[in-house]
Amino acid sequence: MSTDDTSTHSAPPRGPVDSSRIPRFAGPATFARLPRLDEVQGRADVAVVGVPFDSGVSYRPGARFGGNAIREASRLLRPYNPAQDASPFALAQVADAGDIAANPFDIHEAVETVEAAAGELLDGGARLMTLGGDHTIALPLLRAVARRHGPVALLHFDAHLDTWDTYFGAEYTHGTPFRRAVEEGILDTEALSHVGTRGPLYGKKDLDDDARMGFGIVTSADVMRRGVDEVADQLRQRIGDRPLYVSIDIDVLDPAHAPGTGTPEAGGLTSRELLEILRGLAGCNLVSADLVEVAPAYDHAEITSVAASHTAYELTTIMSRQIAAARRDAGTGAEAAG
């Protein structure tokens, strides 16, 4: 399968609006105050794209407003990431691609729309940092990514398994995307992991079914007892050099760190633990990611949106670093061949 374009752009990346000249609270709220996709002639190495869709939720609605809440909270992000010693927006062109407008009344049509729009962005050479929206959208995103890379490894950060079969007979919901993805053969079943799961289930069969699909589980209690470094090392070993997709439900965080979500569960990760685990994945081949289930109507003082914006920032940094490294390697190879 094809990989990301490693050709060198003729001009340096266009970065965020200069906050020393225009206050952070002024102007349109693109992610991290980055340029829109049309402002970089439609060429981006990483496209931050929203999917304002929440018709697949089973409890609290409102995640359709999550993407713009994350964008608003991301105004305070700065261009240098000291935790990864990188300036992600100088290493690669990151742009805000706006929203994919999915039909809120027809879930099948919405899934098709998200898949097609994601495919267009991927075909243009971008990796995706998708802001949901509810977790239903992970399935069409994975379909699009798998067409480009083949079956991908999956790290799924969530309080819940999301491998149930149906709700009320519906096959597409926010609790079913990864069962559908396994059934469709778009996941590498040798490299599947849930991280941060906790809380009551419908029965032990939920875990048995999940294990048969190939998922490993790192619970939130495992993270607390073993620590983030050991967990990140275990995940890296499971993933290896496979193309990796990361899907993050913000409810992986404890409600103290993310109250603004649709299905909160007590006993979750701290925002610090989540960020540190993600930083530990910097050596993995991260091809795209999503961040879903931010429901700002239940948020307080942007607690959830701030955590989500920093989470997307870490993922974007990883992708930008890898794109820059691939270009350097390609340039070195070309020089050696010459």
Supply the helix-strand structural class. alpha/beta
How many helices? The count is 10
Molecular shape: globular
Strand content: 15-25%
Biggest sheet strand line-up: 2-1-3-8-7-4-5-6
Number of strands: 8
Low-confidence stretches: none
Straight-line N-to-C gap: 27 Å
Sheet with most strands? 8 strands, parallel
Radius of gyration: 19 Å
Mean pLDDT: 95
* Percent range of helical residues: 25-40%
Helix and strand succession?
Answer: EHHEHEHEHEHEHHEHEH
Key traits:
single chain; 338 residues; alpha/beta; 8-stranded parallel sheet; globular
Word description of this protein:
The protein has about 350 residues and is of the alpha/beta class. The chain has 10 helices and 8 strands. An 8-stranded parallel beta sheet has the order 2-1-3-8-7-4-5-6, sandwiched between helices. α6 (about 205-210) links the parallel β5 and β6. α1 (about 65-75) packs across α10 and α4 (about 140-150) runs parallel beside α5. The longest helix has about 35 residues, at about 305-335. The radius of gyration is 19 Å and the shape is globular. The mean pLDDT is about 95.
Give the SSE layout.
Layout lengths: L45 E6 L14 H8 L14 H4 L2 E6 L7 H17 L3 E6 L5 H12 L2 E6 L19 H7 L3 E11 L6 H9 L2 E5 H7 L1 H12 L3 E7 L21 H9 L5 E8 L10 H35 L1
Parallel strand pairs: 1-2, 1-3, 3-8, 4-5, 4-7, 5-6, 7-8
Helix pairs in contact: 1-10, 3-4, 4-5, 7-8, 8-9, 9-10
Brief digest:
This protein has helices at 66-73, 88-91, 107-123, 138-149, 177-183, 204-212, 220-226, 228-239, 271-279, 303-337; strands spanning 46-51, 94-99, 127-132, 152-157, 187-197, 215-219, 243-249, 285-292. By secondary structure, the chain is an alpha/beta fold.
